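Section 4.2 – Deliverable D4.2 (structural model, holo form)

The reporting period included a commitment to supply a predicted holo structure for the target in complex with P1T. Inputs used:
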Amino acid sequence: MAKKKHMKDKLHFNSATIHGGQTPEKAYGAVMPPIYQTSTYAQTTPGGHQGFEYSRTHNPTRKALEKSFASIEAGKYGFAFGSGLAAMDAILKLLKPGDEIISTDDLYGGSYRLFTKIFKDFGLGFHFVPMNNTEHISAAINDKTKLIWVETPTNPMMNIIDIKAIVELIRGKDILIAVDNTFASSYIQQPLTMGADIVMHSATKYLAGHSDVVLGALVVKELKLAERIGFIQNASGAICGPMDSYLTLRGIKTLHVRMQRHCENAAIIANFLNENSRIQKVYWPGFEFHPNHNVAKSQMKDFGGMLSFITKGADYESAIKIVERLKLFTLAESLGGVESLAGHPASMTHASIPKEQREKSGLVDALIRLSVGIEDVRDLIADLKQAIG
Ligand code: P1T
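Output (structure tokens):
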């Protein structure tokens, strides 16, 4: 038994997705953890329980998922929340009024909204800087800086931020670095292995992978940080339920296989769009001409399933026509599911960022974002052809 446990600690990624932190359930040997749909647990005497007393604090199905999160991110402690934003909310609660955060200027609109419309009012200060050059970060660092917020690849401009360079920049300083790993997924990069302190996911996306659940993840390696996050998770209570924990755990088991196909299909589509005379620009880190291609090559295993593009003349009307004409790509918010989605960030996922701010990072009204699914790529290309015309 001890030998088996030892083996499970040293698994390669493609086995960790299936076995990481998982053991057959004790009562009947069920290979998948049961959905413990319970809010509370019987006690024989006050405090006389089997490690579970109330499901906000702990639930066995959620615990199985949290161990899986820790395993696939090469961390030690995993935490599951009711959404990606709930997970981010818990990170921000590590801070105190007067503390400052330096964030990438190109990021998910909901993250920007949480920073500027909620936590700013609680006395946190935010600096939004382009992070493709660490000099911009250095210029914003001061004694109050407590957190660097990195999203890479960025949503939706597909900028790649050099995680190790930022880790080096803040070495020895009392500053945490948190990485939103949603776009890449743990298959493509593991920020904790590059020196980040916290990795966060909207597990709604690639980790769960089937567009049927909203859920968030945090993983850390330091015990002290884990204890504080565990305290916040219980004290603030933004947890996910057992059914959603189960669905996410099931999704993770095929993460590596799905990601391979997402990446293959996205590469074919990026090249198809790049060669199309009606397309002006394609944002995808796999292109040699992408400004951060070398960083992408060194820190990512592959280039992911996301890309954005604009049509010739950066014409808003034609962008809207294209997303309306698509048939196999569904026009919808979200990403990372098995089915392909198309989005118009300026009016959908990033509408909460002021236009002027959006356009500084290149997010123009003509931008279309694709989440390339795992369908037969010939059908996806045919759909794009008929929509682009
Ligand atoms: O939706 P939720 O699970 O709360 O996750 C928020 C979130 C955080 N970080 C990134 C990089 C994200 O992309 C998201 C959610 N994004 C979308 C819904 C979207 O379509 O971009």
